[in-house]
Amino acid sequence: MSDINIKITDREGITHDVVAPTDMSMNLMEIIRSYELAEEGTIGVCGGMAMCASCQVYVINDPGLEPMGDEEDAMLAEAYHVKENSRLGCQLHMMDSMEGLEVAIAPYP
């Protein structure tokens, strides 16, 4: 089992040190849900299909994320509270190269 250490700041401004597995095909949205860092029903509303932006995060420290895909870019073009460093958590699959990732969960609509 391979784990990485990431920091997630919740919508209340509290930063959590999180250990995330890289060998379970999980994405950041699922990590946030598993640690209960966002209120039930306010994250991953579409089930991780890049169709709702409820899992939007702001990347504070990018250790080398994969480039944004077309679906993610299109969804963020229609989302609220978007910034230059916005990404969809459902599109960020946990990988060893994400060690040290720091994000803040964007406000829910």
Automatic annotation (TrEMBL):
Gene3D superfamilies: 3.10.20.30. Keywords: 2Fe-2S, Iron, Iron-sulfur, Metal-binding. One of its GO terms (molecular function) is electron transfer activity. One of its GO terms (biological process) is P450-containing electron transport chain. The keyword Flavoprotein does not apply. PANTHER family: FERREDOXIN/ADRENODOXIN (PTHR23426), TRANSFER PROTEIN, PUTATIVE-RELATED (PTHR23426:SF63). This is Ferredoxin. It comes from Chryseobacterium carnipullorum. The gene is thcC.
